[in-house]
Amino acid sequence: MPRQARLLVLSQLFPNDADPVAGLFIRERMFRVGEHIPIAVVAPQPWFPLQGLIRRFRAHFRPPAPRFEIMQGIEVHRPRFICFPGILKWADGFFLALCSLPTVRRLVRKHGLNILDAHFGYPDGHAGVLLGRWLRLPVVITLRGKEERQARTEVASRLRHAIVRADRLVCVSEALKKVAIGLGADEARVTVIGNGIDLAKFSPVARDEARRTLELPLDAKVIVSVGGLIERKGFHRVIECLPALLGRHPDLHYLIVGGAGPAGDMSAQLRRQVAALGLAERVRFLGPYPPERLKIPLSAADVFVLATSYEGWANVFLEAMACGLPVVTTRVGGNAQVVSSPKLGKIVEYGDQDALTEAISAALVHQWDREHILQYARSNAWERRIPALLEVFNQVLQRRTRPEAGGEAAGAGANRG
């Protein structure tokens, strides 16, 4: 009888009380897997001496999280690992693995865990490969979007090491699959499985009702963006388009949903930009929204816009579509795979402000088939993704344990070198 896959999920990006949206897409994905097979989570937290002093000047710098908690019946452990901000990034993967080793070893023995499932190629994937070698576990790495940029930095060799030696790679988009193959991955070991959407949380609210809740004019044109207030997400690029857009759509309003986080905080800069352009009455900073309430600003809008510089697979596109919104975004990463048809929205080249302005303006007046958009979002429900993930884990485990492979060590990328 085939053995059951039992996962140790490794990801330093994982929600906690101090940062409830960090890695939410990882928890959504893997906790659903956990409904079918046993899992435990190790979410290492970066640490170095006296880092609390930095929080006096940057309140959101590495917010402290509990060392251990139970989430929806699943153990979440957060060992600390040595990580100096801005320097020695090439060592982060090794320190993450070394400092996590006692916790990982204990959980493997306690729960009989037999697959290490790491998220992001570096540092987590590199650490996962090291832990897999030390503990003789097969390793699956999910690439999520940072890897293309990391391949051009000082950590490129460590990233390549992880990608080449993992037993299996899961990419959330075809674009990331190309990145993995370009870094040396065997195409036969790469599977594309996008993120999904929780239809229990994302569904349309009557537009007038949503606008009354937000005190918006019922007959206005409204665009919305959602994400962390960081440079990559491109809120400032949308704001740059507003003066020209207001010339064509005098009743236009722009909703910005999101807040500061460990990756940065552009809120003050964005507010200054809005003030300098005289847009204070037309731009609303709504702050962060919990997932269960995000459908309100999405349903209040006519068009979702994200002028991002990179995404692996942006779940927020599906969340917007599940509320009936077309999407305007940039041709980067996996965006064109999510917004896969002109019936779902418009894709423009990154950095082309005129094209972005034109696309938003056209989207505001186009007669969209909202039902088609809704059906597309529903076809990407998590329930469609989980069977494919379970199959990946089962294949990895059976490949490692089948007798003709020569026992546990045979065919295991994580045990090479």
Provide a concise account of the structure shown.
With 417 residues, the chain is α/β, with parallel strands linked by helices. The chain has 16 helices and 16 strands. Strands 4-5-2-1-7-8-9-10 form an 8-stranded mixed sheet, with helices on both faces.
What do you see in this structure?
The two termini are 31 Å apart. It is built from 16 helices and 16 strands. The protein has two domains: 224 residues, Glycogen Phosphorylase B (Rossmann fold, 3-Layer(aba) Sandwich); 172 residues, Rossmann fold (3-Layer(aba) Sandwich). An eight-stranded mixed β-sheet has the order 4-5-2-1-7-8-9-10, with helices on both faces. Helix 3 crosses helix 4. With 417 residues, the protein is an alpha/beta fold. The protein is globular and about 65 Å long. The protein is 39% helix and 16% strand.
Task: Please specify the SSE layout and strand pairing.
Layout: E1 7-10, H1 24-33, E2 39-42, E3 45-47, H2 51-54, E4 68-71, E5 74-77, E6 80-82, H3 92-111, E7 115-119, H4 121-135, E8 139-143, H5 147-150, H6 156-165, E9 168-171, H7 174-182, E10 190-192, H8 207-214, E11 221-226, H9 235-248, E12 252-257, H10 267-276, E13 283-287, H11 295-300, E14 303-306, H12 315-321, E15 327-330, H13 335-338, E16 345-348, H14 353-365, H15 370-378, H16 382-401
Parallel strand pairs: 1-2, 1-7, 2-5, 3-6, 7-8, 8-9, 9-10, 11-12, 11-14, 12-13, 14-15, 15-16
Antiparallel strand pairs: 4-5
